[in-house]
Amino acid sequence: MQNTRLNNLLDTVAAALSQWFVNPWRRFSLLLISWLLGFFLGSAVSTTAGQKAELDILVAAFLVILTEVASRIFYSGGFFAKQSLWVESLNCLKIGFIYSLFLEALKLGS
Predict the structure, then answer these.
(1) Residue 69, Cα to own-chain centre: how many angstroms?
(2) By three-state DSSP, how is residue 48 classified?
(3) 3-state helix vs strand vs coil in the chain, percent to 5
(4) Angstrom distance (rounded) from CA 19 to CA 70
(5) By the 8 A CB rule, do 53 and 71 touch?
(6) Greater confidence, 83 or 32?
């Protein structure tokens, strides 16, 4: 990339954020927030997709593809590092999403 002012600004902000999230409590807070966001998204998707009951199969297929892509990114040892913060946040989002869908299924089953 070229060494422009915008590129320098983005690099500086990214470096400052990565240094800020080195603290374990801040990192844990961000991962907890992403887990809760995934839980909320799972609840929201299950209620909105169940309202019309027209595109349930397509929505389910799309969600399975998204969770599998997130798992591929997290568990592959290649390009993405496992200790990367955004990869761990994506995995926590996926875990919260799947947990929410399991809870919705248990609510429907009882």
Answers:
(1) 11
(2) helix
(3) 80, 0, 20
(4) 25
(5) no
(6) 32
